[in-house]
Amino acid sequence: MSHTLAVAGVVERGRAAFERQAWAEAYELLTAAVQQGPVDAEDHERLAVASYLLGKDEESNKAWERAHHRCLSSGAPDRAARCAFWLGLSLLLRGEGAPASGWLARATRLVTEGGLDCVARGFLLVPEALVLLGSNPAGAAALAVEAREIGERFADDDLRAFAWLMAGQAAVALGEHARGLACLDEAMVAVTAGEVSPIPAGIVYCAVIEECMTVYDLRRAAEWTQALSSWCDAQPDLVPYRGQCLVHRSQILMAQGAWPAASAAAERACQWLARPAHPALGIALYQQAELLRLCGDFDAAANGYRKASQFGIEPLPGLALLRLTTGQLDAATTAIRRAVEDAGHAAGRPTLLAAYVEIMLAADDVRAGRAASDELSQLADSLDAPVVRALAAHARGSVLLAEGDARTAVAALRDAASSWRVLEMPYEAACSRARAGLAYRELGDADGAEMELGAARATFIELGASPDLARLDDLAPPAGRPVARVLTDRECEVLRLVAAGKSNRAIAGDLVISEHTVGRHVQNIFTKLGLSSRAAATAYAYEHGLV
After folding, report:
1. pLDDT by residue (tens digit) across 395-414?
2. Mean pLDDT of the chain, nearest integer
3. CA-based, 20 to 30 A from 406: which of 204, 206, 243, 325?
4. Distance between CA atoms of residues 238 and 459, nearest Å
5. Are 335 and 323 in contact (CB under 8 A)?
6. CA distance 464 to 456
7. Is the separation of the CB atoms in 294 and 467 below 8 Å?
């Protein structure tokens, strides 16, 4: 009797710790209770949840299994099915597809063969909807409606939150972004109100933020990321979700121009997600590499992109932009072309197209840049996302400048800079102002050029964007300053041959250097002189008596 009472006391303390979300304490007490004597199925479930939230995946799996078998033996097949579902979903989220499929199939069999009308039937619609999202989002939307009806009938807040999440994801996949975001907000209202239990709450948090980033709604993503940060901070023992939270936080901080804080968050995200390796580690590594590239640590950035690729993340457009910045124009062109072709109509296409425009203009392929810019403008109209509209305006202005229409380019680039300022994205605003400065220079407006370039330079200094700052410092000199003080002797040779109408291949033959080296020289010439095409370089050479 005394032993039984002792076990009961440990269980009660474990339950109390669980309710306080003191996961480590709950885990220790409930583990001790299980070892000392039999406990209820619900306590095995609590132990499974606490173990999961501490990152103890194997212990969580075993606890779910024990809870499942205890429910079966006590004649509760509906609850047994629910335990099998949670075990299957946990395995699925960790990428363990085969055992996940087995447990989900067992849960389905219990429900269908038993003819059970239970909440587990609704939960089992969640993985079905996930499968359909990519190929049949309308089918996923129908499953979301069915899941919500079951959740309402059984008054299950977890299932209702999942149903709203599924509905939002399906609507976004169908292109109905406003409706999708409204559904996602509905799911988040339940989560932030504390109506949803910890595991589904964490899943909903991360999935909603991902969807917000997918549709380029950075403000909404920032709000929910802050909510996720507060949720994680309130549970110091929490291991899952904290790494993803840090990745999202880094992305938002980078957009807001807080690069040191963004770098610190990305570093902590990599540390959290590496123990053991989590599927989101690749995203964290890519984010870290992006910041390193922008700050000019090119070797570390390249290494980061390689590591991200090892974890299944396509390291583009970041890697292509890195190659462009370091003068490897051929590599940049090849990589970005492949990325755009492979992406199809994927969610990240606007970002890829924006990078494609930059690289094609650097390669003097203005026609390809124009085509990509036009597609980006069409996407901006259809997506109705401020970030995409700003990307499109910047790309449009850049192409117009390359085509020689500097006056129209100024209007587009100033519109882009204004949009970036409204979005509170200082780096992007500075890039658009720098490009507008070049357009003013083409128009002979020295004051306009000085103001735009000066503002861009101040921002790049504040951010620590050393590569962009170096490019600005190498721009065309004021009137009267000899071009020889800007270009190297070899660059002057290359410029003369460009002005003579020769291709990079022909120049390489004349100078007995590689075509790759010629491409790097041409890119340096364009950057230093503030030019955007071979035609403009030719005109510059004649104006300055180089030919």
Report:
1. 999 999 999 999 999 999 99
2. 91
3. 325
4. 38
5. yes
6. 12
7. yes
